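Severity: low
Component: inverse-folding endpoint
Summary: output formatting inconsistent between runs
Steps to reproduce: submit the following structure tokens with default settings.
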């Protein structure tokens, strides 16, 4: 849920970064976050000004002139203050129903809004029915609010006069929890809004058989706990389900079977010790596999997490680029943008590693020419580095390749970037091609630091980097691992010939079309 709070913080900073946020700014910013793909469960992101009721008709006129001619504030209470939704994205049929809705006119929403204003923190409502709901497949809803102050520097000034408005996220709880809890399919989970297991407070139930109250029946493995999420307490009850029990019982029968078959004296002892030794080995293997999986999971989550703020920084830079800037300012924005591109590259590499580990690296194959692959890769690297000249001494034959051009360019670019990075003080890198009846080989040759025979065995492993590298030769040690995987997926292979302090030749070989079809 912290991720979801971060999303709102990003929206909050959009207001702090700009004097006036328009409907269009809100649209660009929130669309860049790709909320529905990256944050399942969020139905919409909205902004509502905190305004005097007397200013309602002026506000209505403003929004009507901005492309919503039928915009009307829907307020059911006689409050002095109104908080009508004026921006909401994505502008789906459901979300349009929330436009104009005065959030303060509902007690639960009002309570959370007040808590958010007083604490300056995200505050979540009790279970509510979202105005986006129609009569079909209604789900319990929640709203999370974050206040925007007119004077954010003076954070102590939480006076309502200092409140400009609120950003909010609307959640449909089944969608949200299904996304958050999907990996716990061996547990039945129920989540209640508040401290007790009352059916009317249920916000999520993974299997629609309420168990929490029947806890007294002593289910084999069950437990409950309370958590505080954005100022609201949720009580969570969970118990093992059939998936868990089946997995557990299968192993139990297996052990009993072995023990039973070898029940007689010595044989039995022998069997026990063998089983124990095997069990130890299996346990160790399982443990190291679990650790490895945890590491992969961490990389996947971390890179995904890093991508979120980066996307929002990119969106800000795009907004900045549309401003009237002087040359100096434009220069700064350009530099920031190029650093962001580098960072994006690193994060994308990490995401690629996760995809490879999960067997989910997708190829988008098409036909293209070998010369296009080589020339486009060289061109993109020439944009990044001016220290080296990349030469192509032999003529590139116009041979057709069927494969994922983007991924093969990524592979070749990695060879080229490495060739430059690991040959400081030199100024040439050479690209060679060789074509036989069966294979196309592309070589990237440098005159750099070279690689010891020992390290040549290891450089294609994940995260391996030679020890003696300079601090300026930074990297994550995953480029060659990804390159290797990409080329393997094209039925090819990669390799290296190298001599320390003399230079290296990295090559990738792809089957010719005729060969690939065999
Ligand atoms: P990174 O460059 O980010 O460390 P790579 O997977 O691309 O990751 O490379 C792994 C390691 O292989 C590098 O850290 C470096 O030690 C070695 N290496 C790769 N290319 C070259 C090269 N052209 N010359 C010398 N060493 C290289």
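Observed output (run 2 of 3):
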């Amino acid at each position: 849920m912290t991720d979801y709070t971060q999303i709102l913080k990003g929206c909050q900073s959009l207001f702090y970064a700009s004097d006036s946020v328009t409907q269009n700014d809100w649209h660009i910013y929130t669309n860049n976050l790709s909320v529905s793909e990256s944050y399942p469960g969020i139905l919409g992101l909205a902004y509502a000004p905190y305004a005097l009721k007397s200013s309602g008709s002026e506000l209505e006129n403003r929004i009507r002139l901005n492309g919503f001619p039928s915009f009307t504030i829907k307020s059911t209470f006689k409050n002095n203050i109104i908080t009508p939704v004026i921006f909401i994205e994505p502008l789906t049929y459901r979300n349009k129903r929330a436009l104009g809705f005065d959030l303060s006119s509902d007690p639960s929403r009002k309570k959370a809004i007040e808590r958010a204003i007083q604490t300056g923190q995200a505050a979540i409502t009790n279970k509510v029915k979202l105005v986006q709901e129609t009569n079909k497949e209604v789900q319990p809803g929640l709203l999370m609010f974050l206040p925007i102050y007119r004077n954010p520097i003076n954070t102590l000034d939480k006076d309502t006069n200092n409140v400009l408005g609120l950003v909010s996220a609307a959640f449909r709880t089944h969608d949200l929890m299904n996304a958050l809890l999907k990996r716990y399919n061996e547990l039945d989970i129920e989540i209640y809004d508040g401290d007790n297991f009352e059916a009317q407070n249920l916000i999520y139930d993974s299997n629609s058989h309420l168990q929490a109250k029947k806890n007294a029946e002593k289910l084999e493995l069950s437990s409950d706990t309370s958590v505080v999420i954005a100022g609201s307490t949720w009580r969570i009850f969970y118990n093992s389900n059939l998936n868990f029990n089946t997995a557990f019982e299968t192993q139990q029968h297996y052990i009993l079977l072995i023990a039973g078959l070898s029940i007689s004296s010595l044989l039995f002892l022998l069997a026990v010790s063998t089983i124990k030794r095997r069990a130890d080995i299996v346990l160790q293997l399982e443990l190291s596999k679990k650790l490895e999986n945890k590491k992969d999971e961490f990389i996947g989550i971390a890179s995904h997490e890093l991508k979120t703020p980066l996307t929002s920084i990119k969106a800000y830079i795009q907004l900045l680029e549309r401003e009237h800037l002087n040359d100096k300012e434009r220069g700064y924005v350009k530099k920031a943008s190029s650093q962001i591109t580098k960072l994006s590259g690193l994060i994308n590499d990490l995401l690629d590693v996760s995809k490879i580990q999960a067997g989910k690296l997708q190829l988008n194959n098409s036909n293209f020419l070998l010369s296009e692959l080589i020339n486009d890769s060289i061109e993109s690297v020439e944009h990044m580095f001016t220290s080296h000249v990349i030469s192509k001494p032999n003529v590139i034959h116009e041979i057709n390749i069927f494969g994922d051009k983007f991924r093969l360019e990524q592979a070749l670019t990695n060879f080229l970037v490495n060739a430059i990075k690991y040959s400081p003080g030199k100024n040439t890198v050479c690209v060679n091609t060789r074509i036989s009846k069966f294979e196309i080989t592309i070589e990237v040759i440098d005159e750099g630091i070279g690689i010891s025979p020992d390290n040549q065995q290891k450089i294609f492993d994940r995260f391996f980097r030679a020890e003696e590298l300079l601090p300026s030769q930074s990297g994550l040690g995953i480029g060659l691992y990804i390159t290797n995987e990409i080329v393997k997926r094209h039925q090819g292979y990669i390799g290296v010939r190298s001599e320390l302090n003399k230079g290296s030749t990295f090559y990738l070989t792809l089957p010719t079309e005729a060969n690939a079809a065999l």
